[in-house]
Design goal:
single chain; about 210 residues; alpha/beta; six-stranded parallel β-sheet; elongated
Length: about 210
């Protein structure tokens, strides 16, 4: 958490877009929004670079085309949010709910997730290259063409995710739940490192026994 950001406590009523802008303008720099109720709010195109959002309720909010470079989201409800075309360079999400989030055509260099729910999220073509992903639940997410090369997945869930044309060369998947591994889908993890137990599961799915 960035310590020098001024805390902006939540207003008594759900704020408007104008009130979000005014909070930043009044301080002349990035701020920390604490406990704000931003659910369903249209925030397209706002400059929120460097801001922090702590325990905010943002379900169905629209962050499309926002500048969120180096922004932080901690303990937030971000279910079904939209991030199309947003700048998320070096942004960080920790302990957040992002079920059904739509992160498309966003700039994501240095983006990080830690202990987040990304169930059924649209993450097509997103790059996780060289990331250390801990406690991230991708169950049912659309990860087509996503880049996991050289990433390390610890306590992560990839069950039922769409992994068509995703890349895993050099990825460490020993700490990930890969779901039911069958001959028709195991090739998707080509080049990845898996555990002995995961390898045994693959062979078991082929009807083979390890002696």
């Amino acid at each position: 958490m960035t310590p020098d950001l001024p805390d902006i406590p939540a207003p008594p009523q759900p704020p408007t877009r104008a009130e979000v802008e005014a909070a930043i303008r009044a301080n002349g720099r990035a701020v920390r929004f604490v406990g704000w109720a931003l659910a369903g709010l249209e925030l397209k195109g706002l400059d929120l670079a460097g801001c922090a959002f702590v325990r905010c309720r943002c379900g169905q909010a629209d962050f499309s085309a926002c500048d969120l470079a180096e922004a932080q989201f901690v303990g937030c409800d971000l279910n079904n949010t939209r991030w199309r075309g947003a700048s998320l360079a070096a942004a960080a999400f920790r302990d957040c709910k992002l079920t059904g989030a739509q992160i498309e055509h966003a700039r994501t260099l240095g983006l990080t997730f830690e202990r987040c729910l990304l169930i059924s999220a649209n993450l097509r073509r997103l790059s996780f290259r060289r990331m250390a992903l801990e406690g991230v639940d991708f169950q049912g997410a659309d990860l087509a063409e996503a880049d996991f090369r050289e990433a390390v997945l610890s306590d992560c869930n990839l069950r039922d995710a769409n992994l068509v044309d995703a890349r895993f060369e050099g990825a460490d998947l020993r700490g990930a739940d890969l779901g039911a591994l069958r001959l028709d889908n195991v090739a998707r993890f080509k080049g990845a490192v898996i555990s002995k137990a995961q390898a045994a599961a693959i062979l078991s799915g082929l009807g083979l026994k390890v002696a």
